[in-house]
């Protein structure tokens, strides 16, 4: 099992926090790639959730995604083991051969794709997606993975 995919509502909220909370992924160093997402300020799009591509400690990432509502358009998050080499991951093979532990990609405000090396995390997020009522929830396997790149934007 490689990961899972599902659709979240095209609305503002704290979806990254809802998906990642409780998975112990706050122990990773996160590479925030190119993307587009905004905090909601006065019922409209405000400042960028992640202003530029950067590296964030897991605790800092979780603090940011839990404090206010935001609107996700494109997200590219890759979690690496602490003290490991953080590098660009563009293909599944590069993911397998790297120290990257977790990838979350979101496109068009709704379509989430997750890859993880820990199968228990995949199963936990699958169960959370079902409970949250997300749509089109599927495991990603060697047989059904049609993605050619692991970059959201």
Written overview of the protein:
It comes from Gracilibacillus ureilyticus. This is DUF2691 domain-containing protein. It holds the Pfam family DUF2691. There is one protein chain. This protein has one domain (3-140). It has 4 helices and 9 strands, in the order E-H-E-E-E-E-H-E-H-E-E-H-E. It has helices at residues 15-20, 58-67, 92-97, 119-132; strands at 3-7, 28-32, 36-41, 44-48, 54-57, 70-81, 100-107, 111-116, 135-140. Strands 1, 2, 3, 4, 5, 6, 7, 8 and 9 form a 9-stranded antiparallel sheet that branches. Strand 7 (100-107) and strand 8 (111-116) form a beta hairpin. The two termini are 24 Å apart.
Structural class: alpha+beta
The number of domains:
1
Compute the CA-based radius of gyration.
14 Å
Form type: globular
The helix fraction, in percent, is 10-25%
Distance between the termini: 24 Å
Number of strands: 9
Poorly predicted segments: none
Number of H/I helices: 4
InterPro entries: Uncharacterised_YncE
Organism: Gracilibacillus ureilyticus
Protein name: DUF2691 domain-containing protein
Pfam families: DUF2691 (PF10903)
Could you give the topology of this structure?
Elements: E1 3-7, H1 15-20, E2 28-32, E3 36-41, E4 44-48, E5 54-57, H2 58-67, E6 70-81, H3 92-97, E7 100-107, E8 111-116, H4 119-132, E9 135-140
Q: Key features?
A:
4 helices, globular, nine-stranded antiparallel β-sheet, 153 residues, alpha+beta, 9 strands
